[in-house]
């Protein structure tokens, strides 16, 4: 047991294989951490023997009597050949007798008591051991090890001819016993000083704990209290043998005015080594008390902190190691990116494609190629990681008006508006778009890194400041796979893949959205551009994300990564929150005064815009920098100087294929024609919009548009364009093919009457679902065979099984060995990777839905793990908080899971009103007799049937990934977000490898 915390929560470490030596199984964890929640705790922690300080007590060969006894009795080791025992109590006599019985010559027992216990003295004398009662050991002598011991009568002082020097290579010391009160003290218990024991003993605790035996002070060794042997010089009287702290050091500390044992501990470092004061703590406190003239009870003790015993970092890390050291989030398209040579960057926990090198390209060459494709032809990016929040309710528009700086309530249904959120201090918090789906229904997008923070921000304001607003917010980030289709050729590609959609700029104006089918997949297409080019964001159910992407790539579209995205947006002067802002940046600093509404009475941050500091003219503002040498790269973060004074810093820096030069964005104060970096590089200062300042590129090629002109529609009420785009369009979409329909998570269309709230009821019969894909032959395994697929980051013992052992398959998490290339070599590339003009395959394949784990399963001794894919899931909000249930209610094949006071998740084939989150999570069923043991490896909940019975549910963490856990009759159903699914499956395989 290493720690005792609030509410009888204890942490223990089990040592499982250390005693087995080479016989330990390689698949079994060496140590295991147990987290225990107890109704009542009984502490029988015993007592620790304490030393006595005397001259030379640090020599090798001087040890506690109990230690020598353990060497002999437990390990069969003789710690010496000729011994002297120095004791203040009866307990050391047993050690002396046992050593004598093993053949050690015991020269004498030096007992500080004038009248030792008669029984022990008789037994010692019967064994031929001399007992020197009323004597001290005044010095241990020797060079590299103990050679002799000097003993003197306890009244002796100065030169005493009655002193004796005994030859010995072993000196056993016992100064009494201290109850082990560490865990009791950690529980919040108080201590009192027992003068007869010379030790602190338990007094009272606020927790349900009882201390018994020696830990309570039930020690009867007939001893006396002796802390140190008096002498003229205390420089060799050691208190802490590990820190070489002496009695003289304690006198020096108290002489300097220190009276607290905590201060003395820090001054001398006593008790800060490996044993954390177990042998020296009580002695240190007693010496401080002696020095300042008080009792040890008045001095007290140092704080007892966990862990009580040393715990290895590997034990604490557990399975959080290697590629499992931190949860990893991936999109539905991740494996395609990995298989086609993408290099990834970490964006929070997300793995995002950084760039796609071809034929040994370095990063700069690859990014320039991708940029040219986006500016001159057509390119695509996986934008699925952008945060998406469903906001619904009668007061949704009012709620968003209060959060955003610009007006959202005037947005027409079918339109989109770029918006910015500020904190109450007026500083930029996040930006994104608001998509109006109905009068009371919006879809909000956020930056990737701030998705969780924005949702938390919304919930905080709704629950604490505006509880009267009838609004609910639901994360749907992983429900949708989002692909940005960018470039002058994007309209032609979309026209080909979505023949039912009118894509001309009049029918489908900028900052509007349409529901349609793209490549036969139900999709929501938004005309949004973060590049300044003609662009579309195509959103489909995550189950169909890969099918959509492959349909696009079959048109020879160039994929691009986040680095190219950064370059394209920077050329247009679009800021990235968190990179071009630093927590002290206002919208005005970014040149975005236009985004601050003058019509709204109030919004978060409005009052702060009138403060003197936020309205002063010399604030830092966003500018672009053009180095005088067009090939010089300005380092991000570099300070900028004007007249040898720092006036700002560089926030973003890139090489542009379009501008044919390097450039940078920066935050600077004042107006300067030229700025200089610390190394002397000069750059001209200019407007942030370096590319297409008129904003004409976002609508595509006018000549191409004229060839496909169609009927116009009214455009009143469309949303604003992103920042720094001069055009402002307005429009109202024509009839949407999905205006009276909802799409289930599998992409099937359901029709029904629209309710007052904008959600759907009275569903008609669903259309036929596309069939689930059959596992490919490559993923099949025979019973007892080794798994065909495992995440590339983990090839555990589970992957090397003998016949009859574990079997599993899981698609590769990262690039597998088969896709690795030699340095400088080109990975295999499909034609889709080339920047050729878009072409149309003659017979596009039918869309295929894919679950996050592709039907993953694994079987081990006593436990099986299997994905349960394509379950329909609907998030339902009740409005008014209800009594906590912590239960999952089953009705036929439908399970209703309680998530919170006003939130439920309905899982199964049933159709209910709410927010469809079917593709947001996948289900993993963990079943078998050892299912509970497997989950306990990484779940902090007590899963015992008495605590977590069948039908119980909880939102919790498993391997640090957020899950919903449901107890079933033969195990558990784990609902995990799709982005964490492969990480969690890999973790489960690793944890089950010892079964």
From TrEMBL:
SUPFAM superfamilies: Aminomethyltransferase beta-barrel domain, FAD/NAD(P)-binding domain, Folate-binding domain
Feature: compositional bias, Basic and acidic residues: 694-711
The entry's keywords: Oxidoreductase
Residue stretches making up the SoxA A3 domain: 235-319
A Pfam family annotated for this UniProt entry: GCV_T_C
Region feature Disordered, mapped onto this chain: 686-786, 817-854
Segments forming domain Aminomethyltransferase C-terminal: 620-674
Record-linked InterPro entries: BFD-like_2Fe2S-bd_dom_sf (IPR041854), FAD/NAD-bd_sf (IPR036188), GcvT/YgfZ/DmdA (IPR028896), GcvT/YgfZ_C (IPR029043), GcvT_C (IPR013977), GCVT_N (IPR006222), SoxA_A3 (IPR041117), SoxG (IPR007375)
Molecular function GO terms recorded: oxidoreductase activity
All residue ranges annotated as the GCVT N-terminal domain in the record: 333-600
Family indicated by similarity: Belongs to the GcvT family.
Protein name: Sarcosine oxidase subunit alpha
Organism: Acrocarpospora macrocephala
């Amino acid at each position: 047991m290493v720690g005792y915390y609030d509410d009888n929560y204890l942490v223990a470490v089990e040592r499982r294989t250390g005693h087995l030596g080479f016989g330990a199984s390689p698949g079994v964890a060496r140590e295991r951490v147990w987290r225990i929640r107890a109704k009542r705790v009984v502490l029988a922690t015993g007592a620790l023997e304490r030393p006595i300080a005397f001259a030379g007590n640090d020599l090798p060969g001087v040890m506690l009597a109990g230690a020598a006894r353990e060497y002999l009795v437990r390990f069969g080791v003789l710690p010496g050949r000729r011994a002297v025992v120095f004791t203040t109590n009866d307990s050391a006599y047993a050690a002396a007798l046992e050593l004598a019985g093993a053949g050690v010559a015991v020269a004498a027992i030096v007992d500080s008591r004038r009248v030792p216990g008669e029984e022990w003295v008789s037994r010692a004398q019967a064994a031929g051991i001399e007992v020197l009662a009323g004597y001290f050991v005044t010095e241990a002598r020797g060079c590299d090890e103990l050679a002799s011991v000097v003993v003197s009568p306890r009244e002796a002082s100065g030169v005493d001819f009655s002193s004796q020097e005994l030859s010995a290579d072993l000196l056993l010391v016992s100064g009494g016993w201290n109850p082990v009160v560490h865990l009791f003290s950690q529980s919040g218990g108080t201590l009192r000083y027992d003068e007869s024991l010379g030790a602190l003993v338990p007094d009272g605790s606020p927790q349900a704990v009882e201390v018994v035996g020696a830990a309570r002070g039930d020690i009867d060794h007939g001893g006396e209290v002796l802390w140190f042997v008096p002498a003229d010089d205390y420089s060799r009287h050691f208190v802490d043998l590990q820190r070489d702290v002496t009695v003289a050091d304690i006198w020096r500390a108290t002489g300097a005015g220190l009276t607290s044992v905590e201060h003395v501990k820090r001054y001398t470092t006593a008790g800060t080594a490996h044993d954390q004061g177990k042998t020296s703590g009580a002695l240190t406190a007693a010496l401080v008390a002696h020095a300042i003239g008080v009792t040890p009870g008045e001095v007290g003790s140092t704080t007892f902190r966990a862990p009580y015993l040393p715990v290895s970092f590997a034990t604490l890390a557990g399975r959080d190691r290697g590629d499992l050291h931190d949860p990893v989030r991936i999109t539905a398209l991740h494996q395609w990116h990995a298989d086609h040579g993408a290099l990834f960057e970490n964006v929070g926990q997300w793995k995002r494609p950084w760039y796609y090198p071809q034929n040994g390209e370095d990063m700069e060459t690859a990014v320039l190629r991708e940029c040219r494709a986006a500016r001159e032809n057509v390119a695509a990016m996986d934008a699925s990681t952008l945060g998406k929040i469903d906001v619904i309710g009668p007061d949704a528009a009012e709620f968003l008006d209060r959060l955003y700086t610009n007006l959202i309530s005037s947005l027409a249904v079918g339109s989109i508006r770029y918006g910015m959120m500020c904190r109450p201090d007026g500083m930029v918090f996040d930006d994104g778009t608001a998509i109006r789906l109905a009068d009371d229904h919006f879809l909000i997008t956020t930056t990737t890194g701030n998705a969780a923070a924005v949702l938390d921000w919304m919930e905080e304001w709704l629950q604490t400041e505006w509880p009267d607003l009838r609004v609910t917010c639901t994360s749907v980030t992983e429900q949708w796979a989002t692909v940005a289709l960018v470039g002058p050729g994007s309209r032609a590609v979309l026209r080909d893949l979505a023949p039912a959609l009118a894509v001309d700029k009049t029918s489908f104006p900028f900052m509007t959205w349409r529901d349609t089918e793209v490549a036969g997949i139900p999709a929501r297409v938004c005309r949004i551009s973060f590049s300044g080019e003609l662009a579309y964001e195509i959103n489909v159910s995550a189950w169909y994300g890969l099918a959509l992407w492959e349909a696009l790539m079959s048109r020879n579209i160039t994929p691009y990564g986040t680095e190219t995205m950064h370059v394209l947006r920077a050329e247009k002067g679009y800021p990235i929150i968190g990179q071009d802002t630093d927590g002290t940046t206002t919208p005005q600093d970014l040149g975005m005064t236009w985004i601050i509404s003058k019509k709204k009475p109030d919004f978060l941050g409005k009052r702060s815009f009138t403060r003197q500091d936020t309205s002063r003219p010399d604030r830092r503002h966003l500018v672009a920098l053009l180095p005088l040498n067009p090939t010089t790269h300005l380092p991000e973060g570099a300070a900028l100087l004007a007249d040898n004074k720092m006036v700002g810093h560089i926030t973003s820096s890139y090489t542009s294929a379009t501008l044919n030069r390097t450039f940078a964005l920066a935050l600077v104060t004042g107006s300067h024609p030229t700025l200089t970096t610390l190394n002397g590089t000069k750059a001209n200062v200019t407007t942030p919009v370096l590319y297409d300042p008129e904003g004409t590129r976002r609508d595509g090629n006018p000549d191409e548009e004229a060839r496909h002109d169609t009927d116009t529609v009214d455009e009143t009420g469309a949303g604003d364009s992103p920042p720094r785009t001069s055009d402002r369009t307005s429009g109202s979409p024509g009839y949407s093919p999905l205006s009276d329909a909802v799409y289930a998570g599998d992409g099937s269309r359901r029709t029904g009457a629209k309710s007052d709230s904008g959600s759907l009821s009275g569903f008609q019969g669903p259309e036929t679902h596309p069939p689930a894909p059959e596992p490919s032959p490559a993923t099949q395994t025979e019973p007892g065979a080794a798994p065909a697929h495992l995440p590339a980051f983990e090839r555990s013992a589970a992957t090397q099984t003998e016949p009859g052992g574990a079997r599993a398959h899981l698609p590769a998490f990262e690039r597998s060995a088969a896709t690795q290339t030699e340095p400088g070599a080109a990975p295999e590339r499909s034609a889709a990777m080339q920047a050729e003009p878009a072409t149309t395959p003659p017979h596009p394949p039918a869309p295929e839905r894919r679950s996050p784990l592709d039907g993953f399963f694994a079987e081990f001794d006593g436990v099986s793990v299997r994905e349960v894919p394509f379950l329909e899931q609907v998030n339902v909000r009740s409005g008014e908080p209800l009594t906590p249930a912590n239960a999952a209610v089953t009705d036929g094949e439908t399970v209703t899971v309680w998530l919170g006071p006003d939130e439920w998740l309905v899982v199964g084939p049933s159709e209910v009103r709410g927010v469809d989150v079917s593709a947001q999570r996948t289900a993993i069923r963990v079943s078998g007799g050892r299912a509970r043991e497997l989950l306990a490896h990484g779940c902090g909940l007590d899963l015992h049937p008495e605590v977590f019975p069948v039908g119980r549910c909880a939102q919790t963490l498993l391997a640090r990934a957020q899950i919903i856990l449901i107890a079933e009759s033969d195990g558990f159903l784990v609902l995990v977000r799709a982005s964490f699914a492969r990480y969690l499956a890999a973790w489960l395989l690793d944890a089950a490898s010892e079964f």
